[in-house]
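Honest question from a wet-lab person: if I give you the sequences of every part of a complex, can you actually get the arrangement of the whole thing, not just the pieces? Trying it with mine:
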Amino acid sequence: MISKQQQKYVQSLHNKKYRTEYGKFLVEGEKGILEILNSDFEIENIFCTENFKEKVPTDTKFKAFNICKEEEIQAISTFKTNNSGVAVVNQKKITTTPKVTENQIVLILDDIKDPGNLGTIIRLADWYGINDLYCSQNTVEFYNPKVINSTMGSFTRVSAHYLDLAPFIDGLKVPVLGAFLGGQNIHHLSLKKPFGLVIGSESHGISPEIEKLIDTKITIPRVGLAESLNAAVATGIILDNIFRDI
Amino acid sequence: MISKQQQKYVQSLHNKKYRTEYGKFLVEGEKGILEILNSDFEIENIFCTENFKEKVPTDTKFKAFNICKEEEIQAISTFKTNNSGVAVVNQKKITTTPKVTENQIVLILDDIKDPGNLGTIIRLADWYGINDLYCSQNTVEFYNPKVINSTMGSFTRVSAHYLDLAPFIDGLKVPVLGAFLGGQNIHHLSLKKPFGLVIGSESHGISPEIEKLIDTKITIPRVGLAESLNAAVATGIILDNIFRDI
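Yes, you can. This is the full assembly:
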């Protein structure tokens, strides 16, 4: 059961304003909640159906499940259909920016705006064992429900650091690659870690201010006529090439 | 200006039922409408702002622009914000399935459900010069506004053929690859066109019925912990590898 007050509170977390004010976010659906139960995130509350509860491994530490009817879950979820549950989770306070150590690829996002793209890039980072993303201040919010959902659970293993990109890149002291049209063919790269990789925004690519700080412009070879690729797809293709070579 | 009746008609095309009944679909926003004006699609009507109209090249054949206020465009658009326009366009009647000729990659989609993923795959096909997609009957509709929008104009150069996949693949008479977890590493493939490539659905991968018809299972090598990749991202990585090798 969920009270009127709880319902109002969870619904308020659909909005960034209240997520930031309360320092909470929502994890929705079976896959996401099972991942969060298995992570080091602090869970405030889980509203779920009896049916979902039965899928939770019995040795899970969290016990205080709040069993609800499907209609109740639906009313507090951002999903079109959700018959599993909604978890209210504490945002992690990230106070320090991790140092770029050897053997690291520094993945930098310059104004990615689409939540689905950011979520897909987080999932990709997790696939390639990259634990940290460095995002411009105008990149979409990590805790946006659409971002969380499209990570397919990878948000539990990848952190996003929001910062002023120009001074960050300037201080990196490693070569920085950037995805452009008309750069060096990624099939013929010869790379040595550590290095930085900048992915630009969906509509404008890498901003002029950041372009000045790029050491090597790289490009995915094109056969046909499309003007560009989706930002997350381009990130995936570049990462596959990077991990083929080093 | 747009009449009440026209408004109701365009809004009805937000729904698949009416798109199918009338054989029409919507193209929205600056990029999409400029691409459609430059294609062989038949345009029934374009509702647009004065501001958009000024961006149309003067030698464009289509002339009957219906100039509207921004609020009028917003009222008929599926976009959250649209200050350019909405075009009503005739669906193409696809009556024959193109033959698989030499030098061709037959890209096959087994139940892709997310419109953003289908749109992104159409954009990818266009990037790699693949003009035809072969889709299971349960793949999301090509003319869904979210599909059209996420192709970024590539829907004008790529056709989707909806068919029963099993007999189609069975009759292909070329080797068929399929994306799986635990298949052959795509970095070590040796390929010779023509061949087929099957991409499975977001939640269930390639269906058991189609799996039986796959000659070679292929896999994108993984470094980290994510269980899987987004379907469109996986398609992009595989296509980049295919076009590197042949």
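Two things worth pointing out. Chain A touches chain B at residues 116, 120, 123-130, 150, 152-154, 157, 187, 220-230, 232-237, 240-241, 243-244 (CB under 8 Å). The mean pLDDT of chain A is 94.
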